[in-house]
Amino acid sequence: MTLKNFISRLNWRQILLHLIAIWFFIYAFETFAYLTNTKFIELFRHSDQQITRTTLEENGISSSNITDLLFTVTAAGLSGMVVGFIISLIISIRQHWFWVNSLIALLLFLIPVNLGFLSRQSLTKIFWVPGQIFSDTTIEFLANGIILLVIGLIIFFWKRPKRFIENNNLVTP
Predict the structure, then answer these.
(1) What is the rounded CA–CA span in Å between residue 170 and residue 5?
(2) What residue numbers bound the domain in which 77 lies?
């Protein structure tokens, strides 16, 4: 394969849409991971004071609980990235699209994340708004995770993004 042929097979629309879908998968999986310790989350959300070691001990939360939650959230995000990439790769192969587009989407996602442009504080606050209608933390995080996951699945499987990738249009007759 020549360089000209390689470049001509790159599809920036697919790369962009799959990059966005992978992002939704990562943050959906991370949102679900917070369900592993809702007691800790509720303590932070409902505390009007600074959280100290004494406050944590009074609520039965140890440093290992905090470490476990952080590890679980990080591992879940990595799992979401892998699942999103695998779905992207399978779609590319089945649609006879260039599989390197999926790999580029994954690699392009890693660059802004490592530079801090796609931080949790900046983007997920927007997507966590719908779950705030629930007073229960478990239901709130479950609803938010489902919403993020559904958006990612829609980007991957809905016909309109597929047409956008294939025809360079949002809608075709």
Answers:
(1) 26
(2) 3-167
